[in-house]
Amino acid sequence: MNDAPATLSRSRFRFLCALLFCTGMTSLIFQIIWLRGFSIILGSTIYSMASVITVFMLGLALGSLAMSRLLKNGRKLAQSPLAAYGTVELLVGLSALLVTWTLFTHQDFYLSMSGSPTAPLVSRMAAQVTVCLALIGVPTVLMGMTLPLLSQLVPDRRQVSALYGINTIGAATGSIISSFFLIYYFGCIRAGAVATAINVLIFAVALLTNRFFPPATEAAVEEPAPSAADTAEGRMLSRPLMLALAIFSGFVALSCEITWTRFLSLCFGNRIYVTSITLAIILLFMGQAARMSSAMLRGSTPLWRILLYACSLTLISFSAALLLERSAFQPKEPGLVVLFILLMVVFPATTLGLIFPLTLAARPAGVTNGASWVGLVYGMNTLASLVGSLASGYILINLIGSNGLIAFNSVLLLIALAGLAYAFRPQFKLADHALGGVAVLGFLAIIAPKSLEVPPVVDAEKAIVRTEDAHGIFSVVRVDDSKLRVLNNRTDLVYLYGDASTQYVQESQAFLPILYAPKLEKALVIGSGYGITAGAFSRVAEVGSIEAVEIVPALVEHAKLFSPGNHDYFSNPRVQIHVTDGRHFLATATERYDIISINVSDPYLPGSSSLFSREFYALARSRLKPGGVLAQHIFGPDMASLYHGIREVFPHVKGIPAYGNGLTVIASVEPLQPHQRELFMQRYDGGRALLGTIGIQDGLAGFERLVLMGDETLQELSSRSPAFYNSDDMPALEFRRLPGQLGLFYSNN
Predict the structure, then answer these.
(1) Is 676 helix (H, G, I), strand (E, B) or coil?
(2) pLDDT for residue 231
(3) pLDDT at position 235, please?
(4) Are residues 320 and 438 in the same domain?
(5) CATH number at residue 57
(6) DSSP 333
């Protein structure tokens, strides 16, 4: 084998960039698919999603650190790095496809390992992390090995940061492609197959071109890095300090990403596409920053000054963004929203994104193997990212909120600024002092005071509750003397409390299934919301026990606000309340129910859409007692498809009109008969004692007329062919292109 040239030609470097672009793209495609798959078996909660991200990042870190050790101690991998990289990519594709397939075909097995959704958080998290490790541990470790392997082919260390940037831009592309194209058209398993096909192609191309890419020569590897050890800067930017910078940048970037994701969802909307766009924006500009860092290192600006500017400009950008926060979250001028996004997310993602690639490219004294150094730095950065994500997503955002989290990371940036100012004070120019001073002033005058505020999603003067936790910014707004509006972030969780139609629909989701259920021993409410449905069940003394499941903790914490509409269900001894994901609760339940009432009306939102899938209905059917009934509200442009989805599992369906644009339906395996008609007539004054509170003055007779009206609507829906069938593997509802200009961003626009 011939020795490698001292520099890599432009065409060969672009070839390596193309490979790493595809590597990043397939990795994010699998991550998006896995997040959806795990949301089904672990629950669609912030904590189960954190388990997936934790294991994903842990695998990347372990893979990178393991490859760093292998490259440092062994020579076999160094002999044919491109072939080794291709082999790793092949193993990634095959193992990831196996994980994807088993996630959607063996859910019952993994559910048995996932732990009880009502167990203490620590034990629940331990079970969830164990399941994630068992499934995605191998492919994520392999993913973490690719960058260190390929970096052996790059003699110029500054080009490694450009490779990292291209890999990150590929990840941004994968986020968009997976949601907008692959899952939408092919479903989850076949989307994974497409990603695996790309991995196989990478393997084939790597083997075919391996002989053209010998590893960099020792002389090239030992060439002094941009920060030479015999300079003042080189002595200050030592190996421990560069590792500390990698750890610092990983922690701060992922901690900020928690807040960036929330802020972008507040600006953009609540659909699954918003999540993909948000991730793509963050990754795109971080990747572009990595490419910029390569060019910066070729210039005359010292590394410490680049870091100084990155920290200072991030702080200044945060300060300016927080001044626009109120205008952005209560938008009247679209231009201000765009400016807020640029200042809060795009510019900081770029400036913070500069820091880590600089540590990849720089070569402190004592580093004898460039590729091993890349693996070590990448691994430590990823581990720090993991810690930043966990600490911020689990603890800090619950304690100090989004604005507080920005302030917390600003303090870390100030500490970094102070360290740079002290270490390089003899070389500071007037411009350096001025920039640092503006950054400090912005923190003291704007960031610190704003840290105590909940982001103003609603007008503070009209809000009676504004709180923030890991699940979102929860707001209760007084519309008038009798009505309340409830939001989580910018999404209306339920229709207006106090409106007659809200009381009618949600109490009907109890009374309709009660009328047709053979027995009334045990009822389950998924999505308790205001608690009106659970409260209606509690008004019927013959209902033995009621379990109410709600995924948003604040709705339960503030349940008293929605009295008397919910009949103080939270204090009724027959009612048990569980704060967790409803589908996961049902899947792991050992009980069987006479009634399962699903009070989740919007089928297009991430998480709730899985309560309208073929597999969910099969699960609900298996958890019902003989003759038991399921109740659910359906509405919207796809109501016919929703109805056919229920009928596919439950052959017998009844319904009543709801909200003027939908139906409250009940479904059963057995023919539906009004088994409890005598109960309504004899115990509850012909039904008037129950139904009078929801505006049906003639009691059961009026209620039964509504059922006849519902029969006519069901007949009409039955005559229409379904546009799709929603399943876990083919989540048509969640990825549905809704009509209207903003259909990709808002479920109701």
Answers:
(1) coil
(2) 44
(3) 45
(4) yes
(5) 1.20.1250
(6) -
